[in-house]
Design a protein that fits this description.
The chain is mainly alpha-helical. The protein contains three helices and no strands.
């Protein structure tokens, strides 16, 4: 396996794990009425490669599923990532 592909895989694993942690942390903070993670940070984390982690955070932990910004932008980020992978790797 190409070293660049390994780096990409490690990056995607890390950013998706970090994104999921952000969503879970924000959900916990919301329940406790504490300071929240900005919505822009949550959406941006999906767009920089963490779309799978964001979708898991949204639908497994039922967080931000009622906000139009998340219902549209996070699946759109996922679709863009899939399209990019299909284009680049030629699946």
């Amino acid at each position: 396996m190409n070293i660049y592909l390994r780096i990409l895989i490690l990056y995607l694993l890390a950013v998706n794990l970090l994104t999921l942690i952000l969503y879970v942390a924000d959900k916990r903070k919301a329940r406790k009425g504490r300071w929240r993670i900005p919505e822009s940070t949550l959406v941006l984390s999906a767009w920089i490669g963490g779309s799978v982690g964001a979708l898991v955070g949204m639908y497994v932990f039922r967080h931000k599923t009622k906000h139009w910004k998340f219902r549209i932008l996070v699946p759109l980020a996922f679709a863009a990532h899939v399209a990019l992978a299909v284009w680049y790797f030629g699946f």
